[in-house]
Amino acid sequence: MCLAIPAKVIKIDELNAQVELGGLIRQASIMLVPDINIGDYVLLHAGFAIQKIDEQEATETLSLLSQLTIDDNQ
Amino acid sequence: MKLVDEFRDSAIAKRLASKLQARKTAAVNLMEVCGTHTVAIFKHGIRQILPQSVKLISGPGCPVCVTPNNDIDNAITLVQDTSVILTTFGDMMKVPGTSSSFQYEKAAGADIRVVYSVLDALQMARDNPDRKVVFLGVGFETTTPTIAAAILEAQRLKLNNFFLFPAHKVVPPAMRALLSSDDVKIDGFICPGHVSAIIGSKPYEFIAKEYGIPCVIAGFEPLDIMLAIDMLLDQIASGKSQIEIQYRRAVSAEGNVVALGILNRVFEVTDAYWRGIGEIPGTGLKLRAEYRKFDAKDVFGIESGYDTEKESCQCGDILRGILDPPSCSFFGKACTPEHPVGPCMVSSEGSCAAWYLYQ
């Protein structure tokens, strides 16, 4: 029940947004993340954006994963 | 899908699996608290790639599973009133109460509707001013801010036919309750990523400080979970106990401050009964006085009382990590997803359902 899926914000109308996930367009309330901008990624849960996704942190986690596994196999 | 596919990269997963398999570690029990993690772990076969000395135990983090019979029985009582529309997330439909379930009552004619979001229930109340729309509020901190936001919206719209049946629960104090009983040895926690997206990492600090147990807050893709296990094993090997965040793209130390503000504006902490565990102080949420008019328990005069669990059902031991699902005498025989005896087999995130489907 704690499933939340990354979705891209494509339109904002006050506290409602249109978000795109895997080609689907859904409505989402952004009451819980009011400072969101078009182009941002959010976690979508039960009709609400519950958190902004930090893409910089995502990139860093991926490079850590690459580094960790390359180092160990050298 | 961006921010999903990268964390399922098979080449990195293979290398990380080899790294994990090669680890020499003493026998350890790692508990994944969250039911969404339980399903992801089974779905991606993560149990199979770990060294035999590393055992994953499923914890009490499936909100459907820990909802006591009494809440289900009381909600069923509500729909005997034909002016009521009961709305719920789909997972609750098949959960057996003492003598019935929502699915059975719906088949018998009760107006029970599955919704994707609490906002759907709110809209239903606006569309049906002559009916009383009750939303059965089940869920942890991931979900509760959305319910709080809906209550604020109901207040703003001056709706007098929208009600919440509050059965929400709070995670960190339940982890304390698990640790306080010596039923199961836990050497590390995989902490719930989306609960933590809301509450941040600070509420877990007591686990490291008071109990000396390492915690890693993990995301839900296979690379996230594998990395979190690697981080936990690093902490255990070096004798550390810290709260680390693997899921940094969604979780910070403070969490979502706006969501927490809305949650705390609408709800206050109370005690709650967890199926199989019992009453745990400070793990429930009730509406604050100014929002009590939306409380279905108050409005419909429902009294609490929690002594209706089936004694033969072993979901309680499974929720505490004492029993693996196949050790339950009902598992796969009297209890299957089609005919569940207990909630751990009903919910798609219940550990019994996950074992049954994937193992």
Map the helices and strands:
The complex is a heterodimer of chains A (74) and B (359).
Chain A (H helix, E strand, L loop, with lengths): L4 E9 L2 E6 L2 E6 L11 E5 L2 E5 L2 H19 L1
Antiparallel strand pairs in A: 1-2, 1-4, 2-3, 4-5
Chain B lengths: L9 H12 L6 E7 H9 L10 E8 L1 H4 L2 H10 L5 E5 L13 H6 L4 E3 L3 H10 L4 E8 L4 H13 L5 E7 L3 H9 L7 E4 L1 H7 L5 H7 L3 E3 L4 H16 L5 E3 L11 H10 E8 L3 E10 L8 H4 L15 H5 L23 H4 L4 H8 L1
Parallel strand pairs in B: 1-2, 1-7, 3-4, 3-5, 5-6, 7-8, 8-9
Antiparallel strand pairs in B: 10-11
Helix pairs in contact in B: 1-11, 2-16, 7-12
What structural keywords apply?
heterodimer; A: alpha+beta; SH3 type barrels; 5 strands; elongated; B: 359 residues; Rossmann fold; 2 domains; five-stranded parallel sheet; four-stranded parallel sheet; 18% strand
